[in-house]
Description:
Elements: E1 2-11, H1 16-26, E2 31-40, E3 44-48, H2 55-64, E4 75-76, E5 91-92, H3 95-103, E6 107-113, E7 116-121, H4 122-130, E8 135-138, H5 141-150, E9 155-161, H6 165-175, H7 180-194, E10 202-205, H8 209-224, E11 230-236
Helix pairs in contact: 2-8, 6-7
Adenosine-5'-diphosphate binds next to α2, α6 and α8.
Amino acid sequence: MFNxxxxxxxxxxxxxxxxxxxxxxxxKQKREKIMAQIVRRGVCLVISAPSGAGxxxxxxxxxxxxxxxxTSISVTTRAPRPGEEEGVHYYYRDLEQFRNMAAQGELLExxxxxxxxxxxxxxxxxxxxxxxxxxxxxxxxxxxxxxxKALPGDVVGLFVLxxxxxxxxxxxxxxxxxxxxxxxxxxxxxxxEMSHWSEFDYxxxxxxxxxxVEQARSVLEASRLATGRSSFKRTAS
Length: 237
Ligand code: ADP
Ligand code: 5GP
């Protein structure tokens, strides 16, 4: 998909093929205007972390500063929290509906996290990447593993670590979204989740939120420029 159009000047010495052609035509001209098109599929940045480390805050900060990022809405079997809305935060489905979606191949990845089903709808995400739109997903490490396998050329993984377990627990409590029992479950799972950090392409520690967002944005920007997912067309004007 066409993603950006760049116009620039290339010096004679940078592109010997162009230089020799230009010399043949004009003899004296030293520079030639080249129109370059970089064509690429979208990047899918997957951010994972133990619950409470700040991945959805970071992902949301990236989305709100970049209107071109496609937002993928996950499906879950957990109940909506106060203030959450169907089709905005999640699609809320019962276990049977969720299993049917998984069995029909409607989910690109899915996993059981803290005893509930979570999954990424396939069709909208694949269409976005095909159109060259970038996506930021905040999902668990099992989902990342499946995504990396399904779309190896599109997926870039970023793992977010908390500064400490004490801080992780404080953030879970500070969020005021989960019961004591749920917080206990999430803390219990956190060390096992963190053991997967090295499967990811990048890792950061979310101490200062602004710094963490900047680091995540750098990963996204660098991934957008990766030669591996770009093709390059050029035409002389
Ligand atoms: P996750 O999506 O990983 O479960 P959240 O993004 O919901 O985590 O963050 C958990 C809580 O921690 C939220 O209340 C959020 O505002 C807060 N938080 C996130 N990053 C930081 C940070 N760097 N410092 C302090 N609090 C943070
Ligand atoms: P929460 O219940 O706090 O919204 O989400 C719990 C955990 O589920 C998150 O920490 C995240 O890792 C995971 N999660 C959310 N959406 C998805 C998804 O679509 N797929 C997978 N695999 N995990 C998800």
